[in-house]
Amino acid sequence: MLNVICIVNGYLEENCYILYYNKNALIIDPGSESNRIIAKIEELKLNVVGVLITHSHFDHIGALNDIVNKYKCIVVNNENRIEKLNEFNFKIIENYGHTMDSISFLFEKDKVMFTGDFVFKETIGNYDMKNENIMISSLKKFKLLNKDIIIYPGHGDKTSVDYELKNNPYLRGNYVS
Asked: What does the domain layout of the chain look like in residue ranges?
């Protein structure tokens, strides 16, 4: 079973996630407080095998160098698209719009997805109006996901695909048909 720990950090209250099976761990979006992230990893005696980055905004990568320097681990992002690290298997889903490097990480077996600033509970991430059609295309892909998937966003509370399809105004009505 995949264990998920959320560490809310920085003045923008970014969600950094530590995922682990047994003692191997991944870090998703290591915000800005490396000391808190490292302390939790050390407390749990985890072996960090990689860092996954949903997009390159400062509030999501502020502690990246500290984490990589300490654990000598692989970084997976929009440019380095590895989809298997040790026992972790995931799919990278492009969901451009918030940024042009925005990706989500879908762990199908565990029915969880880490969306960064693409989809939040009952809303979506901000986007430049010139990217509106790109965001709409990404949202259309989201609507095709398994409804049982739990969504872990870059800020705020977790949610699910089913909940968002029913309650997120950007996924209902005329915005995305």
From this structure: 3-167
List, for residues 114-151, the tens digit of each pLDDT value.
999 999 999 999 887 778 899 999 999 999 999 999 99
Q: DSSP states of 129-155 as a string?
A: GGGHHHHHHHHHHHTTS-TTPEEEESB
Tens digit of each residue's pLDDT (9 = 90 or more) over 43-76: 999 999 999 999 999 999 999 999 999 999 999 9
Quote the CA–CA distance of 94 and 105 in Å, as a whole number. 9
Give the start-end residues of each E strand in 22-143.
24-28, 47-52, 74-76, 84-85, 88-89, 91-94, 103-107, 112-116, 119-120, 123-124
Q: Is CATH 3.60.15.10 what the domain over 3-167 is classified as, yes or no?
A: yes
pTM: 0.95
